[in-house]
Amino acid sequence: MNVHQVLSGAGPHDAITTEALVFRGCFREWGWGGSDHAARIAPGLNGSIAQLARLRPRSDDVLLIHHSAGAPRLHELLALPNPKLLLHHNVTPASWLWEHAPLVAVQCAIGREQLPELVRAVDLAAGDSAFNAAELQALGASRTEVIPLLVDRNRLGSPRHPGAAADPGGPPTVLFVGRLSPHKRQDELIRAFALYRRHRAPDARLMLVGDPITPAYAELLRAFGETLAPGAVSIESGLSEAELGDRYRAADAFVCLSEHEGFCIPVLEAFHFGVPVIARPSGALPEVAGDAALLVEDRDPALVAELMHLAITDQHLRSELRRRGEARLEHYAPAVVAEQLRRAVLKTAEAARR
Amino acid sequence: MTTPEQALEQARAALASMRATGAYEAQQGDELKPGEPITSGKLFEWALIEPDLRNVRSTRRLGAPITALKRGLLKLLAQYHAELIAEQARFNVNLVLYVRRLEERIAELERELRAAEPDPRRESAEG
Q: Is the pLDDT of residue A233 over 90?
């Protein structure tokens, strides 16, 4: 069997690209062939993803279409006679992006418009969360599958360096990992962190890790952090996996106030490193975090600041969250997800034969 | 000894007692400042495309020969690209001009609308 993966865009720090490469590893292990393609390829992938124009499938090869933004030449792709499996990763609502990144907003708006057409054209539609699968059902998909993101928890290294304590020590450190983008609400996090620092921990630090949606937006956040918490907010992009692992090991709490999440891998990464998670229950986040995170719907940044204080100082709470996080990771164990992927691909091939 | 289920209520209670002592007062100036506004002047600036050839490079290790090859190809294709850029720039500039004319028409209509509206101060004085 051959499975070809098609991505709308690919980049070295992109979660979906990383997943596609992990999927490719599974396919190889199962003795399946195929290749991976994207319409837009950022530098730094060193040939691991090929141009979409070079896709030449045989008629019975399965096409696995990862959907997360507007895909160029979609009509040509959907016109191919091959069995097609859609994996919907969700598309950020363009309304969050028009002001700061209009070109990305256009891609997202197109991505949303293409979704119904994709649902109609594929043999099997899947989401990487039940939240995403529900969107597909609302668009008319008669049966959907859930194939969670395949997170290789050892990719970022072991949770603690040998002999290190469970808590990192040093000044209280709050972490968020995710694209620097308006919908991720790093601005709200900075606001809540500044309150936490002012009223609870004057030496606290906030680390924001992620690639910026535009360089200007990163500068805007940097200036905002400098205004509200001078010298305490760091913003880093393009970290290696080892460096990212070090940031998790140095964190006392992981706080995500994002307004839109189709899955949110960093929450699982925080669980892996035993970092207590505070999060806004948006999109698929409650489903992914389960009972292992402190979910807060309230918009009051002072309440988030008090939750940070509690999650950082209450040892019983920390160890209980760690225990639940570890249990949550079992739900997303690579072997379990790989089996869900395998079943979905086989079902697609079978559905197309009928 | 807080459980995750109790944490939110406990944080609310702690916040209430902190606020009772005057902590967590409302802050001034804690809004993210919007980015630089996109003016018609900015659109004109962007309409004229000037690609930076320094961005054409290989990101591979030991990619210097590939960078040289890419830049050489661009030089060979310079005439074609100049034609392409000229066509795109013509479209861009005319589009910006069109938007500017529309803005002027809207401004004119708004002026006319304001002029046609009765003045409420004069009306109340007459009433």
A: yes
Alpha helices in chain A (DSSP H): 15-29, 74-79, 102-121, 130-138, 186-199, 215-228, 241-249, 265-272, 285-289, 301-313, 315-331, 334-353
Which token pair is A246?
């070090």
Maximum mean pLDDT: which of A275-279, B47-51, B67-71, B87-91: A275-279
Q: Which of residues 64-103 of B touch A (CB under 8 A)?
A: none
For residue A192, which of A162, A229, A242 has the smallest C-alpha distance?
A229
Chain A stretch 2-61, residues whose beta carbon is closer than 8 A to a beta carbon of chain B: 43-44, 46
Task: Return phi, psi of residue A98, to 5°.
Answer: -55, -45
The number of beta carbons lying within 10 Å of the beta carbon of residue A313 is 14
Q: Percentage of chain A with pLDDT > 70? A: 100
pLDDT at B53: 80
**Cα dist from A238 to A154, A242, A346, whole Å:** 19, 12, 36
Q: How many domains does chain B have?
A: 1
Q: Does residue B77 sit within a domain?
A: yes
Residue among A222, A263, A266 nearest A244 (CA):
A266
| Interface confidence (ipTM) of the complex | 0.85
CB A328 within 8 A of CB A290: yes
Q: Rounded to an integer, what distance in angstroms lies between the CA atom of residue A80 and that of residue A65?
A: 12
**Which residue did the predictor score with more confidence, B70 or B124?**
B70
Full domain range(s) for residue B67: 52-127
Q: Does A224 contact chain B (CB < 8 Å)?
A: yes
In a domain, B44, yes or no: no
Is residue B2 a part of any domain in this protein?
no
The pLDDT tens digits of the residues spanning A155-212 come to 788 888 777 777 777 899 999 999 999 999 999 999 999 999 999 999 999 999 999 9
The residue of B2, B5, B56, B57 whose CB has the most chain A CBs within 10 angstroms, and thus the best one to mutate to test that interface, is B2
Label residue B126 by pLDDT band (50, 70, 90): low
The answer to whether B32 contacts A216, with C-beta atoms less than 8 Å apart, is: no
Which amino acid is residue A16, in one-letter code?
I
* Domain membership flag for residue B47: no
SS3 of residue A57 by DSSP: coil
- The two three-digit tokens of residue A307, written as one number: 């939750």
Residue B18 is nearest to which of A100, A199, A223, comparing CB atoms?
Answer: A199
Domains of chain A, earliest start first:
3-151+333-353 (3.40.50.2000), 173-331 (3.40.50.2000)
What CA–CA distance (Å, rounded) separates A311 from A304?
Answer: 10
Question: If you average pLDDT over residues A347-353, what whole number do you get?
Answer: 87
Tell me the residues of chain A between 317 and 336 that have a Cβ less than 8 Å away from chain B: 317, 320-321, 324
Give the C-alpha separation, A16 to A10, whole Å: 8
